[in-house]
Specification:
By secondary structure, this protein is an alpha/beta fold. It has helices at about 40-50, 65-75, 90-105, 130-155, 175-200, 225-235, 240-255, and strands at about 30-35, 55-60, 80-85, 110, 160-165, 200-210, 265. Strands 3-2-1-4-5-6-7 form a seven-stranded parallel β-sheet, sandwiched between helices. Helix 4 packs parallel to helix 5 (about 175-200). The chain binds NADP nicotinamide-adenine-dinucleotide phosphate. NADP nicotinamide-adenine-dinucleotide phosphate (NAP) binds near residues 38, 41, 115, 209 and 212.
């Protein structure tokens, strides 16, 4: 299994918040692709993987975001490149997956992080276009990216893939029905694909973040009263940070997680998820 390749015994945890790459870090020599890697969780993941020694191709829809993220991480001494990629568009996905081998010679790691939520409110108020957009970007695009990237990983002797799901996949969030269903679908995607991918020496896992302080979740924490109410209902003492998630993603991509296959790790500060 690919997870056993490279230096064992380190997950990159010291570097996941960013900073200079660890000399001989657990992901040294690896090439990683990160979608939605220009802000929030994705940007922290790109920093974490690069800090653990990987060369990282990060991406998102908007060129200024890509340029800013690449500039920010290069200024920290990290080896990163950027590509504009809207994961809902097949040509855009293909462009991203072609670019990484052209730039760095192959692909060993994929973090599928992009998601949208265009509707808030009762699930039955969401129209068909909203359901289709949510499933196209959040679920179908993840499956298609995995399909594209696996042949590249096989050329390298295997790889590791992490899908970013959500606590909402286990416990649907109020007013976020279609989004929650899409995140539950990702839990199923991991279970369905992990055995196929294991046979091809690719480890597939997921993370399920709770409430993480990013632009995406601002409606749940910007207003102090709302934040207190949400934290109390979740039973958490603080909001999560993008680095909290990046630490776990970096671990799942590392040789330290060689025996973790087809799992979803909840990163939610103790918020109830499942037995
Ligand atoms: P964020 O800080 O708002 O960042 C969103 C990122 O997604 C940006 O880089 C954005 O860049 C990119 N993006 C949006 N649509 C895209 C598309 N179609 N194709 C490619 N990139 C796209 O969000 P976040 O909170 O870090 O969320 C990241 C992931 O974590 C999502 O899958 C989300 O569901 C999951 N999550 C978040 C939380 C939370 O509390 N924040 C909890 C559980 C799960 P551009 O605008 O340049 O495209």
């Amino acid at each position: 299994m690919w997870g056993a390749v490279g230096r064992a015994g380190g997950s990159g945890l010291r570097s996941a918040a960013g900073g200079s790459p660890l000399p001989g870090g657990p992901l040294a020599g690896k090439v990683a692709v990160v979608t939605a890697g220009t802000q929030g969780i994705g940007l922290a993941v790109a920093a974490g993987l690069a800090g653990a020694g990987a060369r990282v191709v990060l991406s998102s829809r908007r060129a200024p975001h890509v340029e800013a993220a690449v500039g920010q991480l290069r200024a920290q001494g990290l080896e990163v490149s950027g590509v504009v990629c809207h994961v809902g568009q097949p040509h855009s996905r293909q462009g991203l997956i072609q670019k990484a081998p052209e730039t760095y010679g192959g692909i060993d790691i994929l973090v599928s992080n992009a998601a949208v939520n265009p509707v808030l409110g009762p699930a039955l108020d969401a129209d068909e276009a909203a359901w289709e957009k949510i499933f196209q970007v959040n679920v179908t695009a993840a499956a298609m990216l995995i399909k594209l990237v696996v042949p590249h990983m096989e050329k390298r002797g295997g790889g590791a893939i992490v899908v970013v799901s959500s606590l909402a996949g286990y416990l649907p969030f109020p007013a976020l029905g279609p989004y929650s269903v899409s995140k539950a679908a990702l839990l199923g995607l991991v279970k369905a694909l992990a055995p196929e991918l294991r046979a091809r020496r690719v480890r597939l896992n997921a993370v399920a973040p709770g409430l993480i302080q990013t632009r995406f979740s601002a409606a749940l924490w910007e207003d102090e009263a709302t934040r207190q109410r949400v934290m109390s209902s979740m039973g958490i003492e603080r909001l999560g940070t993008p680095s909290d998630v990046a630490e776990v993603v970096t671990f799942l991509c590392s040789p330290a997680a060689a025996y973790v296959v087809g799992e979803t790790l909840v990163v939610a500060g103790g918020a109830p998820s499942r037995l």
